[in-house]
Design brief:
about 75% helix, mainly alpha
Length: about 110
């Protein structure tokens, strides 16, 4: 009985990796074993980056809210507590957007909770 080979699927699998390695320099783009290592590491960094992006944006929002709050003579932590007590349910993303683009509206929010 002849030996069964899986040429079509094997070639497709390698081609998929080499296509993902496009744009790399030297052997990283055209030698499968090298390209595979590069692509796998790149995918790990991409996964981590999607998680880090969320953290970094939350930090940015908090910094913007804190800066705007301090211009209105209140600290970030006190502001967030008073917003919660006043049942004003604005998330940090929305508050940061208001603080960044509309200082008068943010000042109105702060005066409402003071």
């Amino acid at each position: 009985m002849p030996r069964s080979q899986n040429k079509v699927a094997a070639k497709a699998r390698r081609k998929k990796i080499l296509d993902m390695a496009k744009g790399n320099y030297g052997r990283r783009k055209n030698v499968f074993t090298v390209a595979k290592n590069t692509v796998e590491k790149g995918l790990v960094h991409a996964y981590d980056g999607r998680k880090l992006k969320k953290r970094e944006f939350r930090n940015l929002w908090i910094q913007r809210i804190n800066a705007a709050a301090r211009q209105n003579d209140i600290s970030y932590s006190v502001l967030m507590n008073k917003l919660k007590l006043a049942n004003i349910s604005l998330d940090r993303k929305a508050l940061a957007e208001i603080a960044y683009n509309d200082a008068a509206a943010f000042a109105a929010i702060v005066s409402k909770v003071k």
